[in-house]
């Protein structure tokens, strides 16, 4: 038996022992193929999106200017600007947030932190999730029945008895905000629950072991560490509230409402009890109900609405990035 | 005879339909170090959770029997007041997502101590007792979650000591800590026992042998044997299984 010598051993230079074999080459080719395929589908999605955006903004260009935002629409929106619907949408968003944020967050805290896991909690959870899938037009009809026909007479009865107002409230910001709030309630509850659920259970247990009450634990550990998720949910709701037409269709939005062109009334143009203009409603009407509407006005309105929602979403993304950089575990 | 500090009287617990503790009765004297050894899944952690009533947070759990602390039945006490009297350290290191200083000051602050000059001495005392002070004294504003596993475990211990509890429950406290630091903590525990009763659950049977006055061998939710540590670890424990377990025949 001879010991192997340098001559009998396979030369390390002649053949790279780490060179890919047929199997590895096939796998690498498949990987490349799949990468290009998924990239293709990705482009398929993005190209139409950009095409639409560019088309809208190019056609809107003749109309766009600062005055276009600041002036009120005149002649059924054929001339003038967008101020009245813009400020209406602003107050609609604020009004609905005032209602939906406290209720939604408190409900989510109860469901996630206090409720025992039982059939009732699970049923509520499923109900909330299904509510999120209800079409907005159904919410609109609900709002019409519950708030315009149900709540308004009660409010008016109260207002009349106090003598604070001399004119009955009609469907307006109040009823529309409530309807939009109801529509967005499941969104807030779901996103808040997810944010709360992302805080590890071990943190809560550590606090309980120290004798902290459930509420102290929520206040000091759970809420501060789920804030980013909760805020993201709220901002999502803002863009939904600004963009939806259906829920405000029967509950307070109108197409023509003359408001002041200057002064403080221009900033606070609507009382809660009168019809108001809103961007989504305005766009809906001018794009297909008014004859001889200048092209640029239609596209201008659409461009402003899209820009508004993109801006809100960018804030949301920026906020999320910032809060994630401060993530503490 | 003194009232025992902790007394379990016919305590049974179950998770859903699965029984965990089966009719457990024992007493622990004041300022005693009471070692609890036994294989995994035998109910050691459940027993500690029953003491400070955090078992109630586990859905589907139920307890029967009575647990007395200082002669008072725990289920009649305010659970949060009870938990403040019991320091608890579980095997998983948990640094709360706040600074080291805030971690230790957490419980005193919830008790209404808010002035920094009152809290600083507490923080320093607890961090010294858990042998963490030297490593973090210059960076008390570091996030607790950024510490290493072993440091977080000592931070957990420091938090548990922050209210000067009368009972300290240690569940595998040394699992993430190196042997040298463990020895230093054990030295501290020998000091602490002058002011508190210590329940020491451990898988390191030698740790129980070093520290405990009495040791209980626990298996499948039942007490196999509970006696003076010398006897449990001696040649003649009452039960053959105890001998096998502490001598590494099984377990």
Q: Enumerate the spans of chain B where pLDDT stays under 50 for 5 or more consecutive residues.
A: none
State mean pLDDT of chain B (0 to 100 scale).
Answer: 89
What's the shape of chain A? Answer: flat
Q: How do the strands line up in the largest sheet of chain B?
A: 7-8-9-4-10-11
Strand content of chain A: under 5%
Radius of gyration of chain A from CA coordinates: 29 Å
Strand content of chain B is 15-25%
The helix/strand series of chain A, from N terminus to C terminus, equals HHEEHHHHHHHHHHH
Helix content of chain A: 55-70%
Beta-strand segment tally of chain A: 2
Taking the sheet with the most strands of chain A, its summary is: 2 strands, antiparallel
Number of helices of chain A: 13
Helix fraction of chain B, binned, reads 25-40%
Oligomer: heterodimer
User: Topology as H/E string of chain B?
Assistant: EEEEHEEHEHHHHEHEHEEHH
Taking the alpha carbons of the first and last residues of chain B, their distance comes to: 37 Å
- Report the span from N to C terminus of chain A: 63 Å
Described by strand count, sense and barrel closure, the largest sheet of chain B is:
6 strands, mixed
| Strand segment tally of chain B | 11
Structural class of chain B: alpha/beta
Walk me through what this model shows:
The complex is a heterodimer of chains A (329) and B (251). Chain A has helices at 22-60, 66-70, 83-114, 119-132, 136-162, 173-197, 201-209, 214-222, 227-243, 246-249, 264-267, 279-288, 295-325, and strands spanning 73-74, 79-80. By secondary structure, chain A is an all-alpha fold. In chain A, helix 1 crosses helix 13, helix 6 (173-197) packs antiparallel against helix 9 and helix 7 packs across helix 8 (214-222). Chain A is flat, with a radius of gyration of 29 Å. Chain A starts with 21 loop residues before the first helix and ends with a helix. The model of chain A has no long low-confidence stretch (mean pLDDT 88). By secondary structure, chain B is an alpha/beta fold. Helices cover 35% and strands 24% of the residues of chain B. Chain B contains 10 helices and 11 strands. In chain B, the strands form 2 sheets. Chain B has a 6-stranded mixed β-sheet, sandwiched between helices. In chain B, strands 1, 2, 3, 5 and 6 form a 5-stranded antiparallel β-sheet that branches. In chain B, helix 3 packs across helix 4. The mean pLDDT of chain B is 89. Chains A and B meet through helix 7 and helix 8 of A and helix 2, helix 3 and helix 6 of B.
């Amino acid at each position: 038996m001879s010991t192997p010598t340098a001559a009998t051993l396979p030369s390390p230079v002649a053949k790279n022992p780490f060179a890919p074999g047929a199997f590895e080459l096939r796998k690498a080719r498949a990987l490349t193929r799949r990468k290009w395929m998924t990239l293709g589908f990705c482009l398929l999605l993005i190209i139409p999106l950009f095409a639409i955006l560019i088309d809208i903004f190019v056609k809107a260009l003749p109309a766009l200017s600062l005055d276009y935002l600041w002036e009120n629409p005149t002649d059924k929106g054929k001339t003038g600007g967008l101020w009245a619907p813009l400020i209406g949408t602003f107050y609609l968003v604020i009004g609905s947030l005032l209602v939906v944020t406290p209720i939604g967050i408190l409900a989510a805290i109860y469901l996630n932190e206090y409720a025992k896991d039982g059939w009732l909690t699970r049923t509520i959870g499923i109900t909330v999730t299904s509510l999120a899938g209800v079409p907005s037009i159904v919410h609109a009809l609900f709002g019409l029945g519950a708030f315009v026909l149900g709540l308004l007479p009660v409010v008016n009865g109260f207002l009349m008895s106090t003598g604070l107002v001399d004119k009955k409230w009609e469907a307006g910001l109040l009823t529309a905000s409530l309807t939009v709030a109801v529509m967005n309630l499941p969104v807030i509850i779901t996103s808040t629950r997810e944010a709360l659920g992302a805080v590890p259970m071990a943190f809560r247990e550590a606090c309980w072991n120290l004798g902290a009450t459930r509420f102290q634990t929520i206040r000091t550990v759970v809420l501060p560490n789920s804030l980013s998720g909760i805020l993201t949910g709220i901002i999502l709701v803002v863009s939904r509230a600004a963009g939806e037409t259906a829920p405000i269709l029967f509950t307070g939005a109108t197409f023509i409402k003359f408001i002041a062109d200057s002064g403080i009334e221009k900033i606070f143009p609507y009382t809660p009890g009168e019809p108001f203009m809103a961007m989504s409603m305005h766009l809906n009407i001018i794009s297909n109900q008014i004859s001889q509407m200048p092209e640029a006005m239609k596209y201008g309105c659409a461009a402003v609405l899209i820009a508004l929602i993109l801006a809100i979403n960018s804030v949301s993304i920026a906020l999320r990035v910032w809060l994630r950089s401060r993530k503490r575990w | 005879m003194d009232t025992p500090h902790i007394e379990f009287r016919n305590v049974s617990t179950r998770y859903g339909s699965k029984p965990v503790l089966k009719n457990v009765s024992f007493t622990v004297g004041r300022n005693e170090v009471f070692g609890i050894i036994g294989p995994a899944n035998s109910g050691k952690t459940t027993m500690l959770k029953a003491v400070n009533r955090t078992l109630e947070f586990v859905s589907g759990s139920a307890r029967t029997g009575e647990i007395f602390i200082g002669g008072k039945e725990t289920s009649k006490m305010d659970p949060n007041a009870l938990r403040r009297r019991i320091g608890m350290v579980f095997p998983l290191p948990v640094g709360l997502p706040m600074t080291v200083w805030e971690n230790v000051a957490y419980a005193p602050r919830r008790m209404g101590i808010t002035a920094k000059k009152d809290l600083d001495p507490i923080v320093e005392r607890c961090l010294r007792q858990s042998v963490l002070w030297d490593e973090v004294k210059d960076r008390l504003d570091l996030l607790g979650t950024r510490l290493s596993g072993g440091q977080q475990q000592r931070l957990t211990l420091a938090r548990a000591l922050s209210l000067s509890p009368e009972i300290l429950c240690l569940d595998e406290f040394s699992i993430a800590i190196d042997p040298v630091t463990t020895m230093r903590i054990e030295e501290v525990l020998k000091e602490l026992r002058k002011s508190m009763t210590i329940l020491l659950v451990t898988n390191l049977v030698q740790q129980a042998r070093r520290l405990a006055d009495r040791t209980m061998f626990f298996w499948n939710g039942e007490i196999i044997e509970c006696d003076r540590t010398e006897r449990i670890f001696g040649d003649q424990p009452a039960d053959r299984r105890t001998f096998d377990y502490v001598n590494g025949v099984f377990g």
